[in-house]
């Protein structure tokens, strides 16, 4: 089959686990239903659930959607995750304004309707107009943004993501982009308003992440050309003539030079001015003042550098024998960086995680295009730590590990530390790592004919529950006995989701656990 096309028959195990995955999303939705009196939101979420479940089953049966090979489409998980997180977040805050949820709902409906049949520009226009008429003027931008982001992410990551992961990622990027547009409007047309430090942190992270993505789109055609040339060089026989070699090298050199020139222009005349305007200060001056004014912050920042050096040294010692435990070293490194910073200086980890994601996005550009001088070394290094779900042209597991750890922190903001802020650390940094290590070393009883074992599942369940209770105690969170029982239910559902999901767990588990913790503490 061509790359990205689903196989003719899906294994029974994948169908079973996909249905269980939908079932666990349904249980979370039932929990939301009994936790809120907002009937319209509940009905909207159930409509998405039923529509996505129908599409999910149809895709498995008829194979009409192309996505990453070896994984079910995961449409229900992807479509429900963002509105589920937003709903539970607003419920936990006691808010009665569910506008962000409606934005997500209309965007999701547009995406799901577009999956019923292949559509082009004309059909997108008609569909957008229909949903615009249904939702009013306020829904035009969300619907258009969702459709554009979904099609963009789908075309770029066709063989690297499932449909569900594409929906989830495009929804998150779309909402983030709309928030950035609002920030830009405020920065340029309400410049008399001096942003607080929390607003500056949010804006500078926003500019860094979106700036790296937009710059990537600007140099995308050149990166693609370099990627294609790399694939040709690895496929062509070694008997090429000397003249053809020199032509190819000359062509590659000109593309590389153009790529660096456009990137430099984007940083100089787009990203830096945008960042300066957003925070109303020179970014490097602001960064130096932010870090150097606090001795504890300097110590934490210095410890990050030391931990990175030590981890690179340790991994290089065992580079010839990469296994599950070696790969989970990154989880331990994330724990060592996130936990102290999150407990004592959430603003620093808020900024650091955003900066790290921006850097990793740029590093992926180097790897994808084999861009000199570091492209070949990065490609070789990444190959050794490649996850089984890293298929297609892009390696996303390391990026999504950071995203999974950071999303709960970004959702709660830089000024407060809540139990939900640690949901990524608990389920990915601790739970998933324990499940992999214990399961690979001591696992004997396999579950549902998958690689997952009862021993690994038990290790994740126990470690996450104990860690959650310890974090709640450290944060002085007042939890009743009933809430402890509900927290245990949230941990159990998250571990069961990890057990059955074929989606990238770094992307799915943290927001799922985040939503369930919000429900448990209501």
Give the topology:
Layout: H1 12-35, H2 39-62, H3 75-93, H4 99-114, H5 121-135, H6 140-156, H7 163-189, H8 197-218, H9 220-235, H10 242-279, H11 283-292, H12 295-317, H13 324-327, H14 329-344, H15 346-369, H16 375-384, H17 397-412, H18 423-442, H19 454-474, H20 481-500, H21 505-520
Helix pairs in contact: 1-2, 1-3, 1-20, 2-3, 2-4, 3-4, 3-7, 3-21, 4-5, 4-6, 5-6, 6-7, 7-8, 7-10, 8-10, 8-15, 9-10, 9-15, 12-14, 14-15, 14-17, 14-18, 15-16, 15-17, 17-18, 17-21, 18-19, 18-21, 19-20, 20-21
Describe this structure in words.
Helix content is 76%, strand content 0%. It is built from 21 helices and no strands. Helix 1 packs antiparallel against helix 20 and helix 14 runs parallel beside helix 17.
What is shown here, in short?
With 522 residues, this protein is mainly α. Helix content is 76%, strand content 0%.
Task: Quote the average pLDDT.
Answer: 83
Q: List the helices and strands in order.
A: HHHHHHHHHHHHHHHHHHHHH
Q: Report on the biggest sheet.
A: none
Q: Helical content, roughly?
A: over 70%
State which percent range the strand residues make up: under 5%
Instruction: State the shape.
Output: globular
Number of separate strands: 0
Instruction: Compute the CA-based radius of gyration.
Output: 23 Å
Which secondary-structure class do the elements indicate?
A: mainly alpha
Which spans of ≥5 residues are poorly predicted at pLDDT below 50? 1-9, 241-248
Ends apart, CA distance between termini:
49 Å
Number of helices: 21
